[in-house]
Amino acid sequence: MIRKIINISGTLLFNVDQCSIARAAAIIKRGGLVAFPTETVYGLGADATNEEAVCKIFKAKGRPSDNPMIVHVASSEQLLMVATSITDQVAGLTEKFWPGPLSLILPRAQNIPGVVSAGLPTVAVRMPDHPVALSFIRSAATPIAAPSANLSGRPSPTSYIHVLEDLAGKIDAVIRAGACPIGVESTVLDLSGKQPVILRPGGISREKLEDFLGHPILVDGPGCASDLPSSPGMKYRHYSPYAFLILVKGPPEERRCLIEILYARCRKRKIRVEILNSALDDGLLTRSANNKQAELAAKLFQILRDMDRRGIELILAEEIEPEGIGLAVMNRLQKASSMIIRVKGRIIRARKSM
Ligand code: TXA
Ligand code: MG
Q1: What's the confidence (pLDDT) of residue 235?
Q2: Taking CB atoms and a 6 Å cutoff, what residues make up the pocket around ligand 1?
Q3: Any idea what the Cα angle at residue 225 is, between residues 224 and 227, rounded to 5°?
Q4: Helix boundaries (H) for the chain
Q5: What CA–CA distance (Å, rounded) separates 188 from 154?
C-alpha cells in the first residue's frame, strides 16, 4: 500500500503505524534527525553512537554545545551499551521506575561519543514509557540521543504541532502522536557522585525516589548548597514564553489578592494580560491535590505556547505547592519567569529573576 507522507518545508510527518515507524527509524540509521513522542515531552532524536548525527541536533535546536543530552534506550542490553557501573542501586532504580520519566547520570560507555555528553565523563540515560518511543528505538536498533524537540530556550514541545512550530524545515521527520501525558521532562538523578542528587525535578517525584532509596535526596538548584554538582542545562534560561511572566509567591490569600490588583491595573492600561492559573477550568491550582498538580504539569507548556500565539504580553502565575510533580512545575515556572514577587504580609518586594 502506498501511504501519503506529508512534507512540511522538507520535514516529513509520519504516523504511528509500524511501516511509518520503520521509515523513521531508517532515517536515524542514515544519520538523520527525527522528533518522536515520549510520555514527558517530544524528543529530537539522533543515533547516539553517531557523532556527526548528534552534532546536527545542536545545530537544529540552536543548543549550546556545553549542554549534554539524554540517551534513550529500549532494553537493558542497550543500557549496557550506553553506561558503565550498573550497580545494584542502578538495577533497582531501573527495575522500579523504567520505563518511565527518570534519567540516570552514570559513567559513560565508550560506544557513546563525548559530544553526546558535552565532553563529560558521564551520560544521562532513560527508557521512555511510551509505546511509540519504544517501538521507534527498537526499530532503529540503536540508543537514541534526544533533547527536547524545541528551539533552545523555548517551552518544551508536548505536541507534534509545537515541534513543527520550532523545527519544521530543520529536521528530517516528526512522528505524529497525541499530546505527551506527563507534560514536563524527566527527573534527572545524578548517581555519579558520593550521594544521589536530583539535578532536575521532573516526572518521577522526589518523594517516590526517597521512599525507594530510603533516605532524603538533595535537589540541586536555587537555594541548595553551592558545592553540589550541577546539571549544565539548568544554567540556561529555559521554557521561556515571549511574554513577561511574573511569578507571585507568598501566603495564598495575599498572592491572589496581588494578582487580582496587577491584573486589573494592566487591563486598565490595555496591556494584554492573563492569569496562568485561570487557564485551567476552575482556576484553583493552588490546591495541593495531586490531580490538579498533574493537570497543570500536563498543560503548562501548551498554555505558555497558546498565550504566545495569542500575543499575550504579561502572564501572572501563582506559585503552587512544591510537592510531588508540583516541584517540577515550580522549577519550570521559576525558569520561565522574568520576575518573581514575594508577598509578605502587606509588604511587597520584587526581585529580578536570574
Ligand atoms: O523527559 C525528558 O528528559 C526529555 C525527553 C525527550 O526524554 N528530554 C529532555 O532533554 O528534557 P533535555 O536535553 O532538554 O534536558 C536534558 C537535561 C539537561 O538539563 C542536561 O543538562 C541534563 O539533562 N544532562 C544530560 N546529561 C547530563 C550529564 N551527563 N550530567 C549532568 N546533566 C546532564
Ligand atoms: Mg530541553
Answers
A1: 59
A2: 38, 40-41, 43, 67-70, 101, 103, 105, 117, 120, 122-124, 128, 146-148, 185-186, 188, 199-200, 231-234
A3: 130
A4: 18-29, 51-61, 76-82, 88-97, 131-140, 160-167, 206-213, 252-268, 290-309, 326-336
A5: 19
Q: For cell 521559576, name the residue.
A: 334
CA 73 vs. chain centroid, Å, equals 17
Residues 153-194: tens digit of each pLDDT? 999 999 999 999 999 999 999 999 999 999 999 999 999 999
> What's the rounded Cα separation, in Å, for the pair 329 and 343?
20
Among candidate residues 283, 268, 34, the one with its CA nearest the CA of residue 171: 34
Bridge partner residues of 107 (DSSP): 122
- pLDDT, tens digit, 9 for 90 and up, residues 196-214: 999 999 999 999 999 999 9
Quote the percentage of the chain above a pLDDT of 70.
87
Beta bridge partners of 71: 125, 145
Compute, in angstroms, the gap from residue 266 CA to the centroid of ligand 1.
37
Whether the predicted model's global pTM rises above the 0.85 cut? yes
The helix/strand/coil state of 199 is: strand
